[in-house]
Specification:
alpha+beta; globular; three-stranded antiparallel sheet; Arc Repressor Mutant, subunit A
């Protein structure tokens, strides 16, 4: 989680600091649908390496955006889901998707 010292003055910059890496928005999109296991996330995000996925998931858990649940049964597995804070991003992500769709249409008409 960002410290008080790291917290940007601008709220938009704060948002980008939390979700602005190359892969985090793709992870959030997947988790908006339902919880996923690590392998499901890896397989559903084209081009992401295991190292990048691990790093992004760790950062997102540290920021309180996702919850990591480890199940003790065999075979052992871990599931990731959005936290309440992560779920609160749903309207913002939907607005971004709508804007992106409109922008794509403008560019395609071009």
């Amino acid at each position: 989680m960002l410290t008080k010292e790291e917290l940007p003055d601008c709220p938009v910059a704060t948002t980008l600091r939390v979700i602005g890496s190359k892969w985090k928005i793709f992870i959030i999109q997947r988790l908006l649908d339902h919880p996923h296991r690590f392998g499901e996330l890896r397989d559903s995000i084209e081009g992401i390496s295991e190292k990048s996925l691990i790093e992004a998931l760790r950062q997102m858990a540290d920021d309180g955006i996702i919850v990591r649940t480890e199940y003790p049964e065999l075979p052992r597995h871990v599931e990731y889901r959005l936290s309440e804070l992560g779920e609160s991003m749903r309207p913002m992500i939907q607005a971004m998707a709508e804007w992106g769709t409109a922008y794509q249409a403008i560019v395609r008409e071009g």
